[in-house]
Predict the 3D structure of the following.
Amino acid sequence: MSNETNKKNFRDRRFATKLLHFGAEIDEQTGASSVPIFQASTFHHHDIFDPPQYDYSRSGNPTRQALEDYIALLEGGARGFAFASGMAAISTTFLLLSAGEHVIVTEDVYGGTYRLLTTILDRLGIESTFVDMTNFEEVKAALKPNTKAVFMETPSNPTLKITNIAETTSWAKEHGLLTLLDNTFMTPYHQRPIELGVDIVLHSATKFLGGHSDVLAGLAVTADEALGKRLKQLQNGMGTVLSAQESWLLMRGMKTLQMRMESSERSARRLAEWLSTHSEVTAVFYPGLSNHPGREIHEKQSLGYGAVVSFDVGSGERAKALLNKVQIPLVAVSLGAVESILSYPAMMSHAAMPKEIRLARGITDGLVRYSVGLEDIEDLIEDLDNALRP
Ligand SMILES: *Cc1c(COP(=O)(O)O)cnc(C)c1O
């Protein structure tokens, strides 16, 4: 079979198979069963008149390239890019905009993205308006003559609000706007935004894609080649690239993505149902619950509900007591790992947000976020039940 036919084949396969057979999983030269780590900053020019494919690792590295092709395949996009962190991916991508341009952003965007827009990009003349994207009228009303892009995050963090992706992208196209979507919570296993018209998908691969709380990385995938060329120029120009070692570690984690997501999601559904009936819990946020306002839209655009459940225990004091009492989950910033992680948005991921804005966005002092790992769900529930006792 020729190489050409091989390439065509792996693109047509189902998701679980693509995770393991993505085109670079066997080293062509040696037959090695994993992508080699090319720990080199530069590459020899054998013939100065015929420069090598790779010449300097900021501009291109074969290990990073394997990862970039891998994520492009999984998201169904044209080109993938790997960055030193999720924020490196997001900030580099925002530099597609220029001074004087405006972006519409979902109001309960990740805390770091909020900080980037309100303390760094604003100084460079890139303007942003935050809107409640569950209300499409607000999105439309935010359009200005200098609007160039729309930034979505769905489900949002940490209140798991749902944005209608296809409705937003078709409106954005009519107005010539670029659409960006942070797909960290869903991963391409549960949601493939490019199929719904999004131009660039972004990831904190530190979370579910890496999956083991041991690598910091970001990824971006462009829907088409032209945007890919522009993002490549920024990635190389800004130098925000992921190292070869980290690229390898991330691919190592990604191979089990489907199995991890399936198991964690099953447990998260059970946890959300259980929390909904608990007397010490005042509210539960999970798109899989029948009373979640965005459930119907979410089910149309996604293949699962994910593994993050947020819930409110009524007050900051109770939240802190809970965080000190739980014994199984890691109490930490972050999510999406093999081990469960319990975090406290008010003092962790959203600490940078002014209190009035935070409260207005439903991120109360009693809100905690549970990222469900691969432990036995009965143990997680028992542990939480003990910690919730007044
Ligand atoms: C963690 C996170 C980020 C930032 O990623 P880093 O890898 O920490 O830089 C961006 N978006 C979402 C939704 C996140 O959870």
